[in-house]
Structures are given as structure tokens and as C-alpha cells.
Amino acid sequence: MKPFFLFAGMFFFASLIFSQSVLKENSYNLSGGFSFSASETNHPEFDSRSTSVIFNPSFSYHILDIFTFGGSISYRYSETKINDDSGERKSIIRVLNFGPTARYYFHNKNLSPFVEGSLSYSSILGEDSGGYSISFGAGVNYFFTKSIALEPKINYVFSSYTDPDYNSNTFFIGIGLNYHINE
């Protein structure tokens, strides 16, 4: 285990010493993430198990060194199994979101904290239900090469759907990977 921590420490130290500022005006950013969640509920009247998979690529353009504007699309597949007195039921929901995003960076070489916001149109596939989502988040890009950054972040998403009418508030913790394209 010691060799792993020694290697990780040397990698982190070298990336701090040889870091470069990569966030530049008139450059592009390709990013995305893949997340998985699973939950189980044990209630006196029912038991349920839910599984979700989310894939979310995005593309943005650096209008300034510290400000990007772009778009994102995400696909979520959720499956829930509910067991109660009437038997087992299964529910599958597929949601497609797309819309504009904006991000402001507080960058300092290879560590670039940011805040972001987005507005998305949401469509529940296979149903006549749709709505809108507003998302606010914060995170940091840790550049371990000149163009590639690891991105842990948190997001709060408020969604409002119609047909049937309901609202959803969700808190996400995730990690992604970014590729910055500089000319």
C-alpha cells in the first residue's frame, strides 16, 4: 500500500510544480460524466429498490478566460421495483434533458474552482410528460495534464413537470472528466 501512496504523492506534487494555466479565451471544453445510483427502501407497507444510470456530455466555449457558455444533454434511465401486499410492480423512467449552461471559473493554474448554472428542457421518453429544470452547482477542475481535468462537483436541481403536475428537488454529488481544447 505504501508504493501506491508514494506514487500518488509524487504525481500530485509533480502536477503542482509543472502546472500550466489552460483556461483560455477562445478555447473549447468537452466534458461529461457517467453516474450510477442504487437505493433500497424498507417501509412497513412496502419495500422498493431503485437503480439509476445517468450519462451527461456537454460542450462549451470560453468567451473569457474565466467564463464559459455552452450546452449539455443528459440521459437518465431509472428502474424501480416495489413489493407490497398486492405483489411486485416495476417502473421504468427514461428522461432526456438538454439546454444551455454557463460557468464561471476562479482559476489558479491546475486547480480551477467554478460555479455553474443551467436551464434544461426535460422530456420523459415514452410519455406525454415534460418540463423544465434549473440547476446550480459548484466544483473544481483538477488539471493533471495540460488539457485533461478531473472534476468533482455538487449540484442542486429543481425540476417541474406537467401531465401529471409535480416538482422534484434533487441534490447530486458527482465526478466527471473534462478535455480542454486550446488552439
Features:
single chain, 183 residues, mainly beta, Porin, 1 helix, elongated
Mind explaining what this structure looks like?
- There is one protein chain.
- With 183 residues, the protein is mainly beta.
- It has a single domain (2-181), classed as Porin (Beta Barrel), CATH 2.40.160.20.
- The chain contains one helix and eight strands; from the N terminus they run αββββββββ.
- The protein has one helix at residues 2-17, and strands at 28-42, 46-64, 67-84, 87-105, 111-124, 129-143, 148-162, 166-181.
- An eight-stranded antiparallel barrel has the order 1-2-3-4-5-6-7-8.
- The longest helix has 16 residues, at 2-17.
- The chain is elongated.
- The termini are far apart.
Short description:
This protein has 183 residues and is mainly beta. It is built from one helix and eight strands. An eight-stranded antiparallel β-barrel has the order 1-2-3-4-5-6-7-8.
Adjacency order of strands in the biggest sheet = 1-2-3-4-5-6-7-8
The overall pLDDT, averaged over residues, is: 81
> Distance between termini?
41 Å
Task: Please state the CA-atom Rg, rounded to the nearest Å.
Answer: 20 Å
Counting copies of identical and different chains, the oligomeric state is single chain
Order of helices and strands: HEEEEEEEE
Uncertain parts? 10-20
Strand content: over 45%
State the share of residues found in helices, binned by percent.
under 10%
Name the shape in a single word.
Answer: elongated
Instruction: Work out the number of β strands.
Output: 8
Number of helices: 1
CATH topology: Porin
CATH-scheme architecture? Beta Barrel
Structural class: mainly beta
The overall number of domains is 1
How would a crystallographer describe the biggest sheet? 8 strands, antiparallel, barrel
CATH class descriptor name: Mainly Beta
